[in-house]
Design brief:
The complex is a heterodimer. Chain A is built from 11 helices and 10 strands. By secondary structure, chain A is an alpha/beta fold. Chain A has a single domain, classed as Rossmann fold. Helix content of chain B is about 75%, strand content about 5%. Classes of the chains: A alpha/beta, B mainly alpha.
Amino acid sequence: MASNDQTRAHADSQQALLTIENLSVSYGHVNALKHANLQVFKGEIVVLIGANGAGKTTLLETALGINTPLSGAIRFKGKPIGGAAVDRNVRAGICLVPEGRGVFASMSVLDNLLLGAHNNMKNVGKHLQRVYEWFPILEKRQDQIARTLSGGERQMLAIGRALMSSPELIMVDEPSIGLAPIVVNDIFNILRMLNQEGYTILLSEQNANKALKCAHRGYVLETGTVTLSGTAAQLLDDPGVREAYLGA
Amino acid sequence: MEVFIAQVINGISLGSIYVLLVTGFNLLLLVAMIIHFAYPQVVVFSMYIIWLVLEVTGNNLILGALAGVTSSILLNLISAPLFQKVMEKRGEVDINSTMVMSMGIGMIITDVLSHGFNKGHPIAFPDTLAGGEAILRVGLISILPGQVSAFVVGVIAVSGFFLLLYKTRPGRAFRAIAEDPNGARLVGIPLLKTGLQSYALSGLLGGLIALLLAALIGSASSGLGEQVALKVIAVSIIAGLGNLVGGLVVGLSLGILEAIVQGYISGTWSNAIAFVIMLLVILAKPTGLFGLKL
């Protein structure tokens, strides 16, 4: 608890890495996000908790540049990026590990990793080396077709691919979905390790318990609106959160 | 036996051209996500440009070749915004609208060719392009320079194409979009820009095909594109739409099949027989021999 408060106090004193202000996004007549607000500070792990269809993926994809906001602002390192093209945002240092791992199943592990560096081919060898140091299994399997990997290995590949773009902010959409509990622990350990290496992480999860235990702060998203936010410890203690997302 | 060998040689050179056509067609299908039914018309248009430049420059082959390749690339790039407009906000191949758009482009090209060039008469290419005399002649078997160049250039172009596809950064992006356009977008691959690269590359292939066709058959008419277009789409469907390796096998087989029918039955029946066989194949395997890669 104390350490979390400290993080928060430290975070408040500096400019946010990612700021989402009053963001609304709609698909036709469906309002997927309604005046959502969120901030991610450098060095944090922030988790976005919400049920299916709460707007988690929409929020992450809009920050990446996939959707054009209806209204509101998105800023990355203070610069407005709402509506900017994905490749520009990736070059600026944002990346997304998509839900369901989204690796290219027919392509080799190496090709998948190199695709992550598509917009940033400088130092590609160095980045590849680092990804292989973190995920030795990927080096062992670099010529294998991604289809042949296990679920956990695919998630590692998707994270490794994101790292290849040399990002500052890694957004991870529901990393635990469809993975065995023991593998989920591995993935959260990896995210924690990457955070200690200096990467800032914005995570969306239905698996609130494990996610909050690894995060500094969290936001609760309900039908497109942020209904609650606080430190991870506060959210873990919150009766509403406990009832709705922790099964307590 | 001599007839057979002679026809297989004819068939391989013709098949090389089908292979290149199907490859360019499939590339647009996989990366730009359009059904470019009129791609062969673009190729025939370039043949006319080659012919025109040869006429004007007194058979300067280098200028003719350059003009052929350039016109094919330009025509593809010019049509790109039209297709893109039709495709707007669509994450996958829209067969209906892109095919109608492409047919329209094809008809315009055919009409322009039949009205604007050589008073509507078929054009004939000079012997300097076809290469003239046979390189080798044994009984009924003869190998013409145009046949050799069709095969050699075909092999080089297809190998180069696959090298690009599997060993380069744009090739990687092509394959990513071919497998999953939305996934490619999430990784930050620009769909529009990469799509344009595929228009340019299939245009480059188209220019080469125009040169080879000119060398191989030595003439062209405004209706040639439409005839070839039917075969290219048939080959692509029979191989499995978007299946590049399938296109290689089926394109080459069609060339050889047509040549053998010509040799043993009658040239006038070769189209009908080829299409009957393709009909039977598609009845047996509706998704194509090698499976869809869409």
